[in-house]
Amino acid sequence: MTFPPARWRLLWSPPADGATQMAIDGAIVEAVAAGEAPPTVRFYRWDPPCLSLGRSQPVEEVDLSRCRADGVEVVRRPTGGRAILHADELTYSVIFPEADPRAAGGIPETFRRFAQAFAAALRALGVPDVALAPPLDPRVRGEGFVCFEVPTDSELTVGGRKIMGSAQWRHRGVVLQHGSLPLDGDPGAIARYLRRGPDPERLRRRAITLREAVGHPVAFEAAAEAILIAFRELLNIHVFPGDLTPAEAARIPAWRDRVAILRREGEPRQGAWRWS
Asked: In angstroms, rounded to a whole number, what is the distance separating the alpha carbons of residues 165 and 182?
């Protein structure tokens, strides 16, 4: 499918705590829905490390005491899926109107289009044998506490091991898709922070970092640039550098309160916010 050219804003967000990063995505969604901001591509990192839960994942699956002891924050994503430990990774988000032709066909088709672009970016970075995961067997769809434990439809794998996870939320006519590309680190480390969690060795067999896939470190900026090139070549998305608008910045504090479960400086919150 050939797409008409589109100009989307590009945001390079500095490292920040998990509640802030999730709040920024939420604030952009609301601003795009209100016509106050353009479609946006954003790249960001997490500091300190943060455990994010899918919108319906029970907080009871998390060992909050261990997270607090290790300085790991806990947040809830507006998107679905399972837990991710965000540390040495590239996180992206794309936020754009649902009327855009790149969102045609619903969530599965949108996932597939962007997955093809991410696969092209990974191949350009030297990752061999990148593949889109086939539709997940319904019998195992609900298994596991961890996002990278089981690749779902159109997520990316290398030799059967998941290398990139994404999730999507549609709200007020706007698409938010964000996801995680582990650059380095230990795929089994997340097990430390989950009650009745998975076997760390099993996670290491099922997930892979970009460094392991290519055999050398890849810089955050290099990975992001490869994605931007793939967006331009496959999706006809052309970016221009920008900043958050005052309207977006004003929405961030309320969103931080909505998504935070455990902050480094605070006590656990149960996340009374209900996603609509």
From this structure: 9
Tens-place pLDDT, residues 247-275: 999 999 999 999 999 986 555 555 544 44
DSSP secondary structure string for all residues of 93-108 = EEEEETTSGGGTTHHH
**What tokens were used for 183?**
């650059």
Bridge partners of 92, per DSSP, are 43, 179
CA nearest to 217, candidates 94, 88, 52: 88
Tell me the catalytic residues.
147
CA contacts within 13 A on the Cβ side of 103: 17
Residue 175 · residue 96 · CB < 8 Å:
yes
Residue 171 has pLDDT above 90, yes or no: yes
The residues near 187 (Cβ < 8 Å, ≥ 6 apart) are 148, 203, 204, 206, 207, 208, 209
pLDDT at 141: 45
Q: Is the pLDDT of residue 232 over 80?
A: yes
Dig out the tokens for 109 from the structure: 């088709």
The verdict on pTM exceeding 0.90 is yes
